[in-house]
Amino acid sequence: MSWLSDDDDDPEGFDAWDESDVRVRPNPKGNRPRSKIRPSHVDAVEARVLSVDRGRYTVLVEADSPDERTVLATRARELRDQAIVTGDRVDLVGDASGEVGTLARIVRIRPRTTLLRRSADDTDAVERVIVANADQLMIVVAAANPEPRPRLVDRYLVAAYDAGIQPLMVITKTDLADPGPFLANFTALDIPVIRSAQGRWPLDELAPLLDGRTTVAVGHSGVGKSTLVNALVPGTDRATGVVNAVTGRGRHTSSSTVSLRVPTGGWIIDTPGVRSFGLGHVDPANILRGFPDLAAVAEDCPRGCTHLPDAPDCALAEAVERGELDAARVDSLQRLLASLGPDASR
Questions:
Q1: CA distance 327 to 145
Q2: Tens of pLDDT along 282-292?
Q3: Alpha-carbon distance 311 to 231, whole Å?
Q4: Please, what is the average pLDDT of the chain?
Q5: Strand partners, 23
Q6: What pTM value is reported for the model?
Q7: Per-residue pLDDT at 137 exceeds 90
């Protein structure tokens, strides 16, 4: 039976109620609506990311001061969709004392000057950021055991030119083979080259090139890259390996990217050895900018010119025919552009 009949004309009855008569249940937790306004963190301190390990970041606070210290940090929730990599300059809040058991929080990534990137393969346009804020790429290649791979070095060079980073080459194990034929591929590029034999590192020659720079070391597994890093930064003990006598391939040893201070000056960032280096993300125009003398001539090329050997009316090819450009240098540029794939330079 209904508690209110159709004949009920009580003016204080159901029909006289409105929404304001309904008691609103209070928020039991007393939480205020979530705001999109984020704190400014004006008290944050600047730090340099030295290494990344499973969501934890080892950072350096107050570098080159009496209060310099390493701090363990995590990332703030608002940065969950942004990659934080070795070499990044970041802002910290929370406990930045560096004491055991403490954990600071990264709340900002400062603007980056450079980004060294790679993709999974040439069909993948998604970039993987390897290192931030480096200004030099040290390509480590063995003269033998494992055999040098010119095309892999081409890819390192493409990544360097794309990032606006200066390349440097170190040839190891020169006592096992003459690196001359391999280096002939790169003579037109004016890249500094340091040679070393097994167990004899030319540190006096290499140190001035690293001083005042942030240098990323890359190389095929087994070429001696981490051994060189250990020699440059004594006590580092980066993992090293050997080359398989059957396959001629190096074994992956270093599994993380770590930034280390070189006692003679500068920073070196050791990266895991790789056997491939995808360039699907690279803009070919950035490669040409790495050759300013050729870029000036290429301004006279037809629109959409690939600058490859089969490109019609290419100003670079015409300048070579007239003897105005070094053919070897143009060939080096064409080889680097060709390494991006048949469609990448269009």
A1: 32
A2: 888 888 888 88
A3: 47
A4: 83
A5: none
A6: 0.77
A7: yes
